[in-house]
Structures
1.
Amino acid sequence: MSARTFVWTLGPNSVTVTLSGTPEQGTVRIGERNYRFRILARGTNSGLIEINDRRLRFYWTQRQRTVYLWLNGFYYELMPAGPRGATVSSEPTQQMTAPMPGTVVRVAVAKGDRVVMNQPLVIMESMKMESVLRAPKDGSVAEIKCKPGDVVEMGSVLVILEA
Amino acid sequence: MIRKVLVANRGEIAVRIFQTLKEMGIATVAVYSDPDADAVHTITADEAHRLEGTTAAETYLNIKKILQAAARCGADAIHPGYGFLSENASFADACEQGGLIFIGPKAETIRRMGDKIESKRIMQAAGVPTLPALLIADVAAQELNKKADAIGFPLLVKAASGGGGKGMRLVRDASELALAIESAQREAEKAFGDARMFLEKYIENPRHVEFQIFGDRMGHVAHLFERECSIQRRHQKIIEETPSVALTPALRARMAQAAVDAASTVGYQNAGTVEFILASDGSFYFLEMNTRLQVEHPITELVTGHDLVREQIRVAQGEPLSLDPATLRQTGHAIECRIYAEDPSQQFRPDSGRVVVYEPPRGPGVRLDSGIRQGSEVSIYYDPMLAKLAVWALDRPAALARMRRALSEFVILGLANNIEFLRNVIIHPAFERGEINTEFLSTHPEVFNGQPEGSSAEAAALVASLLIQEDGTGRGSAQKPKPVAVTRDPWHELGPWSNA
């Protein structure tokens, strides 16, 4: 199998990983260094990997495209970088998601409305604090996926905008 | 004799109380809101009764529904836990009128100690050191600044019914005073329905040191030493330990005597906590009295060997204290970390969701009081505290090493948690030296930084790449993952495994 490249964003840092071999065993280049790796066990949300000769336990889950990983005592949040992650705003439709879990207090727009940048779309309340979800650019409201009183999770789609 | 106890609470504290009740052979009754139908506390008790509704006001704060449940199941006593109705004097009264034993102090004591102005007056009269304070209603508006100057700036504006930092303002300059009072009054009126305010001298960089006290119906009062609770965020404790490194034996004895005096002067019955502010010069002042079992009671249990809930039940059914001041000892060192579903890097924003992975730490000297399990749904309706991790060891350095190890083993995935942040605090050199006060987090912002020593972004990126079989350019990988050994939990099949 040919080499595959992955680019991850961890907070302010970016890490490029180039894999050769199978998903279970092979070599990897990260920056200037090469490592051998071997997956020794893999469950639904857990596993054991050997990197060079060091064994590391891991657990993981995913929310949207972000990977939440616990590896050998440390927590990591990894966002895939690259075209798919970066081009959201240039796509014809854009999903506006809840920035935190909470309750929808008010929907300030209706389907078909023209909106301008920074116009309030939805007002949410969480832990007794209100926050306003605003349009990131000019467009129109393609769909409204919530109503006042809805209890929504972080990342739930509330409004879909189109250019 | 108490035969059946309804616990009017949820989460880890309800579970913890059930554990002692079971050890005592007492029947256990849980109450639960609709979102808690499958919660750990709901499935831990012998019986569980639904409190129809979702919000705290509809359920765990609803006196009528809780008393109805108690009547339905034939309970003879109610344990309120902490929070919710635990310091609600009307609830204690209502229990008594319904023929139920309220496992806590007398309603009258709750009422008197719940009012911060009244409790200060009582303590002053009993000779317990208090901070100079001034009730605003007693002062004519044009005299306010002069009287405030007499207390001295900086000072605190505090609500008489305050708690949890609500209705409280720090004022460094006389010019800010009027505005601070106005805004704190608005907040207090909304939160407590009581806009009474007082001014209090502010101690810079204080420690928060509290004493566990216990009283019985015969008038015996004992103390079970201190808990140092200076590591706080938003005026809430997140790490507690005992003994406090700040107390010499002489200072401990003086503070303990003040705590016992405070409890005796109100004829205190059952478990309570006397909170003190400790200044860097060793002077200390009564802050408030918590008339309930405290969140951080496990560390007292670890160093004294006494089960505080068992003692609460004994005292509530009229037995004398089993705590003998002559034999009570502090043995070793205990630390507790509160595990919250919150993101410390986002101003501790609370999170909710499903607990996808839950791997608690185990091993020597580790105690976990937990209200969740794998698969639990953590809702937005209640406090985001998930569990309390406590450790015990012979001395403080060993306890710190043990807490670091236990936090490093604790896996919670599916929602944000503060585990790594707590470890950053525990391993901070200033914390290790015991140089702590209530401003620790703001004076050591480096504990908020990610990428702690020993972590490897490279290894994490490698593992994530292997898990997500899709490359960074957006083209999916041709090959489907073929797990080597697909099991739900490979650890049970791997046998003993040690961290490298």
Note: The two ends of chain B are 53 Å apart (CA to CA).
2.
Amino acid sequence: MNATSHKPPLAEAAALIEAAQRRRQGALSEYEAKRLLGLYGIAVTREMLAADAAAAAAAAARLGFPVALKGCHWTLQHKTEADMIRLGLVDAAAVAAACAELAPRLPEGGEWLVQEMVSGKREVMLGLARDPQFGACISLGIGGIFAEAVGDVVFRIAPFDALEAEAMIDELRLGSLLGPFRGLPPADRGALARALLALSDIAQAFPAIREIDINPMIIAGAQPVAIDALVILQP
Amino acid sequence: MSATLHPLFNPRSIAVIGASEGTSATGAPKMGASALQHLIEHRFPGRIYPVNPRGGTLMGLETYRSIAEIPEEVDLALIVVPLDACLDAVRQCVAKNVKGAVVFTSGFAEAGRADLQEEMVRIAREGGLRLVGPNTAGFVNVAGDMVASISMVCQINPFRKGPIAFVTQSGALGGSMLGRGMEQGIGFNCWVSTGNEADLDAADYVDYLLERPEVKVVALFLEGVRDAAKFFAMAAKAARLRKPIVVYKTGVSEVAAEAAASHTGALAGSDRIFDAVCRQFGLVRVDDVAMLFPVALTFAWVGERLPMGRRMAVVSASGGICGVAADECARAGLDLPELTEAAKEKLRGFTPPFASLRNPIDVTGQIRSYATGYQDTVRTVLAEPYIDGVLLLVTMAAEPRASFYGREISKLTAEAGKPVIVAWTGALSVAAQGYPMLTANAVPNFLSVRQAIEAMAALERYRAFLDRQEQRKAVGDRP
């Protein structure tokens, strides 16, 4: 009944995870996490790593203003709580100032992650958790500031197929948000389903990954884009 | 599983090891007496061999001092000896080449003696003996009049036979559910209390019971899943055979989630994950233990007439209950499409002038003055192509009107190609002939509107699952 075909791990993704393990990281940094997701076809923000404030400002100019600036290190797993995010920086001076402000809290070996700003009124969150009994579980939930209060999240056991991914989207109580909603175009369901399948593939390919959060994934126009991602590795 | 379990469920001969006649201090029969008595009273068609070191006769049957003394082959042994004698009894069964044994005795893993349990399983497996239990109320092959149980539910005699295979991980609660279910007119094919599942577990029993042609549906009371892969395989087999498994699960609290580092991990409590398992593998989950059998029976009676979609019609003679039904349908995710003008025009021909012909359809109390108005209304909505199922709500109906409903709804249901479910909310004491006609004629019926609508929603979810399975077959997709 469930899928039997295990896709082999992508070599580049495997190398990325092995390198992190060699460095004894308990998680991937956001930059690494999104590279992994990108390799599996999930749309992520355009972003660049910068070693210092000057490089960050230059990166911002290349990406185009406004940008977001985040401290980037594998230990920074909850950046909002750690106050390591500045959004909507409009010029090089603002980027430099933000770096200066955040620098005291940046962990040893940390870098700056400069990102394009992606706007969209609707957010979802995707994830992977491993159940001791049933194995890898992939989640899809309505995101945003009310996400926890709303608690609209559904799971499937990996691996699963496109029909199950579609069924997950249909199962959301607030699934109508993803249709044509208040003048917004319907979210690209196919892209969302493919992202869920990609997580299913990642879960199968990399037992070394314990948990994943893609939160938020903003529906930009119709396109779901991963804004932040957390990949926790097995201890 | 069939080769393994068929001889256990259809034994030609049964030995009761530790059979007795006595009563305990409370006046209740001893376990060894119950086991023997239930076999005899339920007229087990095969041979019964009581085993007791004292020999003689028990309940009129020749009693053997040991299992080795039994002159013929023994298919199944019921072990009702004290804890410290269990391993020896199992050894004797192995020596006698017995195929299966039910170990009723408690005090094993559930009481901290996992070592004793493991040793017993080892002895059994090496000797090719399969074990039910230990710490079980036993099992009943209702269809085959084989009652290998010490549960007091066996005092109900005869058992009511029917399409449900009931597997439970709780013996005492299971027995009570079985008894109450039979009193409510629900019939069973089998009942298994799985006990500690030292050897065979719930998935093994379900896997086997699905193969019995008379089993149309499985009702499963679950506390935990022992082996996920086996559980998935069981579900896949049920889907292949199009026999639904209706499941109620306890222990849905959030334990594993606490240690999670991610948001996803924190959300992934056992309840949500089990819910995902049910949806993905086509198990029909109920969240009210009292709904386990009624929903299972609804599946058995509806059979292949599953709703093709979520679009329902509601017919009643009460405007008040129509409002309740509209709210409950919305809650359950079922739609109530408005009837077409053509359908309404047709209905106007046989309903009172004040009838409300939107959907829900309120034919009003005046309908009783129209000889065939109710039946024609129901028949008309059943025939509308955009209606996938019909809910009939009977409020206060006393005889002879109650019998009118019982009789006509039974006919309408029998001829319908779509599911019909009844909610009967009125007093039953004045509907003593009419209301029971529904169950007698296999019309799914409930005493509450919410339950009737939840049952319909369960049918629809299962049909959607089967659709996905069909699509997979059609495209040869990986499932």
Note: Chain B has a mean pLDDT of 93.
3.
Amino acid sequence: MINVLIGLGVALFGFVLQTAIGGINRKIIARLQKRRGPKWYQEFIDIFKLLSKRAISHGWIFDFGVIMALGGIIATAMFMPVTNNIVAFGEYDNFFIFVYLIAVGMLGMAMSASGSGNPLASIGVMRALTTMLAYEVPFMIVVLTIINLTGTSSVGEIALFQQMAGNNWFMIALPIGFIVAVLSLMGMLGKKPFETYIAPAEIASGPMVEYGGKQLGMLFIMHEITIFIEVSLFVHLFLGGAPNLAIFLVKYFSVYTFVNLISNVNGRFKIDQVVLFFYKWPLLLAVIQAVMAIYLKWVI
Amino acid sequence: MANLELILLVVLLSGVLAYLGGKIHRVIGTIITIFVSGFAFVSIAYFGFNDILDTSNGFLPLITFDVTYLGLYFGIIVTFIFFMVSFFNPYFIDKYKYPAVYSMLYLFSLAGVIGVFFTNNFMTLFFFFELVVWSSLFLIPLGKCKHAASWYYGFSAFGSFALLFAILIMSVNNNGSFEIASSLLAVDGGNRILVFILVMVAAFAKLGAFPLHIWLPKVLTNAPDPVTSVFSGGLEKLGAFMAVVGLIKILPSGFVIDVLDMHLSHYFIALLGALSIVFGTLMAIRQDDAKKLLAYSSMSNGGYILVALAIASDTSFSGALYHVLAHALASTAAFLAIGAVKRQTGTSKMSELGGVIHKMPITYLVYLIAIISMAGIPPMGGFISKWLIFQSVINEGLIIIAIATFFGSIGSFLYVFRPLAALFLGQEIPEIKNIIKEAPLVMQIPLITLSLLNIFTGVYPRDILLFINKVAVELGINPLEVSTWYVKGNNGYLNPALISGIFGVGVFVSYIIFIVLKKSKKVTLMDTYTAGNFVYTEELLHYSVDFYAPLERLYEKYIDIMKNFYNSLANKVKEFGNFVKYFFFTNKPEVTVFWIIVVILYLLWGEIV
């Protein structure tokens, strides 16, 4: 029971953390573009405003999908280890839970968006799923290498493995795989050039087009927690996790800001370019890294 | 106490009875199929679990029985699928030209399945194997497509002859005995490899795996809806059964790839399984017919079973058998749901449907649960099997195969979502809006039962995994470590009940957030953002044709390669036939007589000279 509360705490922490860091990043990007930018807590204001407004609904599946989406993502976040000690369900923080339980949330959102009856939403969902097909496979091959090397698929234990004396962070131990993982992370977060599925100027924000009020607010919360899950997964897999909260915050902030900075100097790919891109270089590099690490044992 | 022979006889005789009943009134025959398949399932499952199935034989000559855990596992699954699907029979019977024959053949193929799984004699196995092929062969054209039946027959015959050849080789090595256990031990050396290849050909043909997959989408699309479900959930699993025989029991001692620590033969099978996954996924993504889409997904899932069996470790074996169960339940539920939609609307083409959810919510939920399981998402059964399979693929470090399994798993999100978006969700198409209603109550019985089982297999897999452990021990594989709540894989623990529970907590929290906030205003589906355009027709606002067009464009050049290969093969065979006809069977009888004499002389050369 106490574990469930810890898990809910982690989900709430993830929401607050990512919303704050997202706001700070908006400020950073604004300064990069010689603007002043919004206040750092602007995203909180947006979300709470949306939650308080009266909205429209396109039928029960529209609402049910939103509930399922947020529920699935909260459930996924509850398994996420934050530091070595703050983890709700010790040995069950299996990597595949994060990949597949997060998919429940995605499915819920896709279902709700399609249920709205807006073709732009369906196009957005199509693009999101196609992007997922692109970035997920190279990332999984890199993670396969990591799991094969460490012998465990528990995210917390992979982090501990890297903290042991004599082992480098996988960012250094598997440099090629790290590059692939950064690219995949950009796809996961929907950052440019892989933000084709949101593409506000083309398809009116894609899946989100019909939402307003509390539904949109809940999907914003879901989106923030999803980013929290993906970035902290990255921190644990490649940056050696975190022995305490301060280190976690530093690592989290650097990863997110780094990815955000890269993305802001890019244009946008077309959806077929996204697929071709990921199946050309990242997949090839991931396979090379896997062969080097697993068969030839070349690990730094 | 239950005698297997009696069960078999009851099923066979009821087949005849169903035919006679069907002659009086067509629904009578189908009701007999429900009761008899239910009887077969209940007796095999109940007495099988309690280890009191009687194998003595008194009536049928030459047919002997044996109960193995492997046969029992498959037998229970497949008879259950037959039982579930039979509830659909009464509602589809009026579409067939020969309703009485349908009921009879349905039970005959059930009898064939029981025979295959519970015999200890290869000749009997072959006989029942053929009984399944022939009875299902005549079930397919009842969907009014003879073309599909001929493709099915071609590939099945290829598989059957390969199996017969393998059986005869084993029998020669085993002093003419056809007993399964001793025959499998008797062959060795080059013969063992040959037998392995032949049995795997039979398995591939039955499972519809690459490269013997062409028949599968044709049959599954064109056969009557209940037959489709039986094929996908039940009869295809005969192929998985043969694959277990080939990959685990025969296990030729060939060249071993050192770096992977795997037999070359097994790696090759795993590679073909991987190709099935990729090919099935890519083809499923571009289909317009929901049944054809699910047919290709069956092919892709067959690939997972092959990959897992070929790895042949403790986790992968449990994963393979669990996947047999999970996929049987999920695909049957999905096919039945689509079948229900097809019955109400008259089509399963996604481009012609839309917004079915508003009239058929229960069918929609059934389909949703089924696809969650098919895509391997928790908390459904498919997640457990895919987790086990991934564990073993990663542990063995099979990179190329891993690409295929990951690709198939993510790709399955894409294709299973298509019917959901295009057929169930989206705008309500006015042509079907007023004519459809929810499926009848009797049809909902199997739909709901299958959904509950999909959830159950994903939440509490312990008992099923323990049963699979018995099968594993029987085949000389290490059992999986299973406790009440967790499953231990190669590199981690899985606690399915915890995941489901936490998912429940997450949804509960989210529901609380939703309910405490202000109520939304209901608007119609047509009341959407259209960027300032005025659109008054539902079809224009329904995005369902060529859903993944940008992705499809990347590979649409290559999709016909296998089909062209088989067509050119068929042409070559035809040319060869013409050649033979030209030389040997001319209009002049003396030429024919001459060649006959030459052949006889050749055959009897040693005797005469």
Note: Chain B has a mean pLDDT of 85.
